[in-house]
Amino acid sequence: MKPLFLSVILASASPVALAQVGGDGAAIRAASATEQAAMPGAAVSAPLPNAIETAVMNDWLEAELDQDLHKSVSEVARRAYIQRMFQPVWTEQGAQGLQDVAGDLFKHGLASDDVLASDLQQLIDQRFSTSNASEQAKADLALTAAWLRIASAISGGLGDEGEAVESGSNSARMALVSKKLLEAGQGHTLSFQDFESGYPQYAALKGALAQYREIRDSGGWLAISEGESLEAGDSDPRVPAIRERLSVEGYTDRPKDHTESMLFADADRSESVFLQGRNSTASGNRRANLFRNAAVTKTETNSKLYSDDLVEAVKTFQQRHGIEVDGVIGPKTLAAMNESVESKMARIAGSMERWRAQGAEDQRYIWANIPSYTVEGWNGDTREISMKSVVGMASRATPTFNDEIEYTVANPRWYAPVSIVAKDKLPKLRRDPSYAQRANFKIYDRSSGAEVSAYSVDWNDPSSARKYRLVQQPGSGNALGELKIIFPNQYSIYLHGTPSTHLFDRAERAFSSGCIRLEQPERMAEWVASYDSNESLDDVRDALSTTRNTRIDFQSRMPIHITYMTVTVNDDGTVNFWRDIYDRTEGIRQVERMSSIGQTANAQTSEATERG
């Protein structure tokens, strides 16, 4: 038995258990599991509590969870059993509820096989159908371990955030774990909602996952065959399939096959007109056939037309997939249409996992998402500010991390990093040293700190990038624009403006050397300052009204999350699937089944069904 076990029992046991402790102060003892089981109303005979006590005290839970969960989690489970005086946690009703939840973990974006290490049905049989107390005890503990694994997976991890200092919310979270574990075991409503990420995007993604599961269960969509790019007004046999494909995700109304009704209406009308002029059944039938054939031709021609309404639907599709919004169905748009529904579901699940990794939600924070080229300011469930961004090119990718904003600088100087000087500036200075003056750079000798002339430096020497510091002065051409927002980090990444504002008109904006350029940096700085103090907001505005280089320190620290989410959800619930610009996910998977030329997906599916 572990040292200080008595004190742990006294600290963790239920009031009933504490009532069994001697009251004379000289010979304090805790009731054994056997004694507790013998009390009136005990539901389980002594052998099972004894077997559970033996397993718990022999560190069964620690051994089972060691590689998966923080040690504090197994300690919470240990205390839960001590609180119950080693009575089993799980009833049949509770175990069945656990199995039901485990069977639909994918609604949380999780795969059951990745979360659970044991077959729950086998554990249930072992717990309630065997007579061996030791086997029953291990099964009860294994069900507890399964519940803890699920709670940990849904929450993004249970336990301390660091070795030296426990997080401020750790005690509350651990108390919640114990409470919810015991409730689940007793068959109360089993829900892991309390353990889910509280970030609004997580809940929105969960809804999106349910939506795309329904699409998958309804058959998904068929791939569109390759061909020439389509522009407004073009006619192409693939158009009906494109219209059907877009309707599945709600970009267009589901197409209806009006051909049959049009044919009969035209045929009846033509036959009636003809018979009024000529009382000839044979001639009337021939005339009706001519009208019928003409109607078929007209309908087929219209169905193949890349019409204005479909162009608008394609533009919306392009906007939500990070593609240039031009209405042209080219290779990128076609590839996005041909991504399978299973692939989209996997990407939604991946983004949910990344939100879980953010930890406990912040009340106010900046969210900079790389694939969507956006930076947003959130207050609770409200997106209060949003703007376009430019991120690092693939060769100089913007890293993902969390930090806290400390200060902002108006009219900043830009201290060009050695890597950028070597790659970008040296070639320009070799061709023309006057580039330094035109671009408003001052050059300093790093060894002495003295300012030097660009004409006095041998720019052909590769080491000059390390020997000399290039500092661009504030001004309209400054690479950082009017303002930068700083959160000191190991990557030297920060938010800033840019003189190259034309880049924000592009759909794909991976052009920087790693830092994140903002479309409206002054608005973002004012938003941050507005939650710091009135003085900070005034200071930011005053500094921006001048050309002086000014630093404004914030009294409070606003969190910033730089993420790589390839799926985001708009306020109206519409879903965006961004391009994987850094190829960080497992890759986009294409639909394998191809839609026939000139035929809608519905028609092809119907034919396949009829053929059996």
Automatic annotation (TrEMBL):
Signal peptide as annotated in the record: 1-19
Protein name: L,D-TPase catalytic domain-containing protein
Record carries keyword Cell wall biogenesis/degradation: yes
Keywords assigned by UniProt, alphabetized: Cell shape, Cell wall biogenesis/degradation, Peptidoglycan synthesis, Signal, Transferase
Residues annotated as domain L,D-TPase catalytic: 364-540
Family per similarity comment: Belongs to the YkuD family.
Pfam hit, one: Scaffold
